[in-house]
């Protein structure tokens, strides 16, 4: 894994991005010798929309349209305006 100072990264950002994309190797960006960020290639997705990767990850257990608590527990109709 390559490391690079933030000032050098700023000066050569586009070239470094191209190299990460081409090689798949990560680059750690340092600030005053300490790691502050890591640049890595993105994972390819087969989905047309990012939300589609969540498809199948939700299970509907009950009625998703009805109220969360039964109507007899509602207090809004018992409030008196005096």
Structure write-up:
With 82 residues, this protein is an alpha+beta fold. The protein is 21% helix and 18% strand. The longest helix has 11 residues, at 13-23. The radius of gyration is 26 Å and the shape is elongated. 0% of the residues are buried.
Summarize the structure.
This protein is an alpha+beta fold. It has helices at residues 6-11, 13-23, and strands at 2-5, 27-31, 34-39.
| Average pLDDT figure | 86
Q: Which structural category fits the helices and strands? A: alpha+beta
Strand content: 15-25%
State the helical fraction.
Answer: 10-25%
Shape: elongated
Helix count from the secondary structure assignment: 2
CA distance, first residue to last residue: 72 Å
Strand order of the largest sheet: 1-2-3
Rounded to an integer in angstroms, the radius of gyration calculated over CA atoms is: 26 Å
Order of helices and strands: EHHEE
Query: Which consecutive residue ranges, at least 5 long each, have pLDDT under 50?
Result: none
Oligomer kind: single chain
Question: The biggest beta sheet, please?
Answer: 3 strands, mixed
List the helices and strands and how they pair.
Elements: E1 2-5, H1 6-11, H2 13-23, E2 27-31, E3 34-39
Parallel strand pairs: 1-2
Antiparallel strand pairs: 2-3
For the structure shown, list the relevant keywords.
82 residues; alpha+beta; 3-stranded mixed sheet; 2 helices; 3 strands; elongated
């Amino acid at each position: 894994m390559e490391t690079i100072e933030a000032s050098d990264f700023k000066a050569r950002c586009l070239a470094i991005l191209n190299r990460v994309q081409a090689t798949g190797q990560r680059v750690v960006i340092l600030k005053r010798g300490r790691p502050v960020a890591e640049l890595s290639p993105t994972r390819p997705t087969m989905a047309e929309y990012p939300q589609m990767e969540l498809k199948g990850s939700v299970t509907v257990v009950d009625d998703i349209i009805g109220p969360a608590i039964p109507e007899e527990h509602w207090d809004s109709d018992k409030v008196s305006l005096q």
